[in-house]
Amino acid sequence: MGGEGPYVRFDPQSRAFWASHTGIAALDDEELEAAYSRAYQFIVQSKEILVKEHSWDEAVAEDGKIFSLIPQERRGSGFNISLPSTFSSFMEATNLQMWKTVFEAFDARRPSRSNNDLFISGPTPLSDIFYLLQCMAPGMLLLVRIDEYDEVGEKESVRALPRESWVVSHADVLNTILGGIGAYKALLDASRDRSKSFKESWISHWEPYADVEDRELDYTACGLECGYCGHCDYNDPYDYDD
Q: How far apart are CA 28 and CA 142, in angstroms?
């Protein structure tokens, strides 16, 4: 079994789908700006921890940015992680590539090959910022894993919300930022329900030996206990002359 990811997908246009899928009412533009403004203190505190406790460098922030940080391991690369001073910047089509570059550099992981409980690895303050933005605008930041199953197809697992444990441990902050207990409860309920916080779907299906003309036929019977593997013409499911 192979596959792709996990990785981060920045997709602000999918918010309407995820509002329906999670059951969390999407905030309108004005509500998002108000929530982002209330999140400012939490974001700045997280930034300060990255600088003081994780030795990240703080660069001069451009106009319209809250901060610009250089991860310790990316010094000299020209790469930085920044956040805008207004939430609307995430939604502007002209900024799409810029924010894709920032967020898709985050380190998405899963606990093991057999466990698709997707999460952000790295310093806790950085993952906290990521999860907070997931809670404010479900669907904008997605964690994605594609698993390839031999002779079956590819299955995509997409996560739009943080783990329930993160939502519970940040209840006070989320209550304040989201604007009340009702919004928080809807978020908590969705984070507890994998069918809401995740979307899993087959994105491709493969039909082994479907091309009769190209397959190499084996005319040797396997024996009396043959379980018919599909490689020979005995009881050939592709024999359309019957």
A: 20
